[in-house]
Specification:
By secondary structure, the protein is an all-alpha fold. Helix content is about 95%, strand content about 0%. The protein is built from two helices and no strands.
Length: about 90
């Protein structure tokens, strides 16, 4: 689940960036470039969604790699213990 969230969050941020820029360019096509305040809404949306996607993705990736590493270490420990148990059983 963490891997999926980490992969999708930046894409959702990018989607918001694209929709924000589409809004900004629609304003330019209707009102021209002489109204920067009209462009601000679309540009702000683009920046906010990009930031939101990164704010979600970065910690999620950190936790994902932390838990993946922890799971790998547990698997290695279980394999070591299983080999020890097999060696003990072979001796008896």
């Amino acid at each position: 689940i963490l891997g999926t969230i980490a992969a999708i969050a930046p894409l959702l941020g990018l989607l918001g960036t694209v929709t924000g820029m589409i809004k900004a360019f629609r304003v330019v096509s209707v009102q021209g470039v002489g109204h920067p305040s009209a462009l601000a809404g679309g540009i702000a949306e683009a920046l906010l969604t990009t930031a939101a996607g990164l704010i979600v993705a970065i910690p999620t990736i950190v936790f994902y790699y932390y838990f993946s590493r922890k799971a790998d270490m547990l698997i290695i420990e279980m394999e070591k213990n299983a080999l020890r148990m097999l060696n003990i059983l072979k001796r008896e």
